[in-house]
Amino acid sequence: MLIKILIGGLLIFMVFNLFRAMKIMLQAEQPKENMSKFIGRRVLASAAIVFLILIAVALGWIQPNPRPY
């Protein structure tokens, strides 16, 4: 259950950074922060999610769905 909560938190973190980058992109004046910082955090969170899922399946903490055929 902890793995699922952690993955859900990382997904929320990804969406939050996506909207922060969008906010900076849509500003008319020169932004104070760099948009690539938030996009980079989003990519890092994506990589962490994939790595966490692979480790959790390998260790048997989560079970993937059975094949449909």
From TrEMBL:
Keyword list, A-Z: Membrane, Transmembrane, Transmembrane helix
TM segment ranges: 6-22, 43-62
Record has Membrane as a keyword: yes
Protein name: DUF2909 domain-containing protein
Pfam families in the cross-refs: DUF2909 (PF11137)
InterPro entries noted in UniProt: DUF2909
